[in-house]
Amino acid sequence: MDSLNKGAFNFFRSDTQRDLALLTKALDASISGIIITDNTLPDNPIVYCNNAFLEISGYDRTDIIGHNCRFLQKNDRDQPERELLRKAIENGESCVVDIRNYKKDGTLFYNNLFVSPVKDENGNVQFFIGVQNNVTQRVKAEIKLREQQALMEKRIVERTQHLKESKDYLNSIVQTVRESLIVLDPTFKILSVNDHFIKVFKVTRDDTIGKEMYELGNGQWNIPRLKELLETVLPTNNPVEEFEVEHDFPRIGHKLMVLNAYRVELEGEYKDRILIAIEDITDRREIERRKDDFLSIASHELKTPLTTIKGFIHLMKSTVPAEADGKFKAALEKTDVYVERLNSLIAELLDVSRIQTGNIELHKEDFEFDKMVAETVDGLQTATKSHQITVDGATHSIYNGDESHIIQVLNNLLSNAIKYSPGSDKVRVHLSEVGNYIKVSVTDYGLGINHQDQKKIFDRFYRVGEIQQHYPGMGIGLYVCDQIIKNHGGSLWVESEPGKGSTFSFTLPVHTEHQQ
Ligand code: ADP
């Protein structure tokens, strides 16, 4: 019995040792760091650590055994997780924290620490087991995410504030502009109007908001052509530009209004709206009319005495004695030149006033187009030393049109090409047939015209800002040319690059039976 007991005991002992060795091996094979602290000893020192803990912490066993775990935090003591740990240990409870720890070489790592008490049969805590994992990457990702969220929230707050400010800012502009503004929804119902609209049309917001645009007043905007145009604004994004409405408006009487409509481009809440800007141009048009009248009267009045002066000069020239003073003859010649210049300026002004009153008359006749171009170029070339004018291409057309007016257009484009290209010595005329049109292009290599001015130069009296001081002119040549070409059913346009030069082209429709 005794020997049996002893044998059994031996067997048991060797089994326990084997188990212990196995357990230690298992602990060392774990990829989690494991430590055991002895709670019965002062300051709860570490009594065991596995290999993974050495790996995670970078310390040697001798640096670890006998120490309290706090060395892992170095001087980074101000962590709320430490307080959680302290309380759990005090109360003999388990807890999990992510805590900032430092390796022996000072590198920070986030330690996911699970602390669990080991109690004796009386419930007193004997040991604590700490299982640790380096979760630096996860925690860093979480911190980054939190930071990004915070940044995003901050941006949203800023953006909301910015939007509010922009809205207030836009609102103040809309309310102060000196144009009447209306915003329509896609069914042409009025969503809002600005103060200027209320003032100009002498209406209230209640009279206006929620109504269909065409129901307003006494139906002043209920114009089939306007309706047609407005209906294309949203689907095609094409604005309605400079649509004139002359009407007897309720409360404000007979007025001339000009209307522009655009699709509101903002995405989101304000998509699919139409913004209409209306300007009262009654007074402006009246002033323009008076100016035109003045121009017409003045040029007519100037023309008559000038014709008489011209007659006298010719008389003097034909009767001047052969032995007359050379100075006198030269003065007479100069007077003739200047009177001729004055005469053509007045003729231009008369052209403008004739166009204004719709009195420009075309005397259409068949003429050889290419011959007319060659002769006009020759005429100008004789008077021009600075530039060489070349003609290439051909239209091969007998054209039916007002020859003298077309010559006037060509002369104008050529003299502009010469005038506005002081640094170059070439002007090129190119003729071509394009479908049922003849096309003439005049190219110079001079100052060029910037994009904004390209549209305006065909307006009467418009001259490009920096040019007007240096070159003589009245800004009506292109206006007259444009009207002449339009009256022939053609179009005139410019392509230009500042500093490189310009090409003015016009097309004229030809009837096939007139082509050679
Ligand atoms: P004017 O030459 O008398 O000013 P135009 O109506 O012929 O009047 O021309 C209007 C304006 O267009 C000119 O003042 C000038 O600014 C610009 N312009 C016309 N032709 C040219 C050109 N070939 N190159 C550069 N600018 C030009």
Quick synopsis:
The chain has 516 residues and is of the alpha+beta class. It is 46% helix and 24% strand. A 5-stranded antiparallel sheet has the order 2-1-5-4-3, sandwiched between helices. A 5-stranded antiparallel sheet has the order 7-6-10-9-8, sandwiched between helices. It has a 5-stranded mixed sheet with strand order 12-14-15-17-16.
How does this model look, in words?
This protein is α+β, with helices and mostly antiparallel strands and 516 residues long. It has 4 domains: 2-134, 2-Layer Sandwich (Beta-Lactamase); 154-280, 2-Layer Sandwich (Beta-Lactamase); 285-357, Orthogonal Bundle (Helix Hairpins), CATH 1.10.287.130; 365-514, Heat Shock Protein 90 (2-Layer Sandwich). The protein has 15 helices and 17 strands. The protein has helices at 2-29, 51-57, 61-64, 80-91, 136-176, 195-201, 205-208, 224-236, 282-319, 326-356, 369-383, 403-419, 451-456, 465-468, 477-487, and strands at 33-38, 46-49, 95-102, 108-119, 125-134, 180-184, 190-193, 240-249, 253-263, 274-280, 365-368, 388-393, 398-401, 426-434, 437-444, 491-497, 501-509. The strands form 4 sheets. Strands 2-1-5-4-3 form a 5-stranded antiparallel beta sheet, with helices on both faces. The chain has a 5-stranded antiparallel beta sheet with strand order 7-6-10-9-8, sandwiched between helices. It has a 5-stranded mixed beta sheet with strand order 12-14-15-17-16. A hairpin with a 5-residue loop joins strand 4 and strand 5 (125-134). Helix 11 (369-383) crosses helix 12 (403-419) and helix 12 (403-419) runs antiparallel to helix 15. The longest helix has 41 residues, at 136-176. The protein is elongated, with a radius of gyration of 48 Å. Residues 412, 416-417, 420, 444, 446-447, 449, 457, 463-464, 467, 473-479, 502 line the site of adenosine-5'-diphosphate. Adenosine-5'-diphosphate binds next to helix 12 and helix 15.
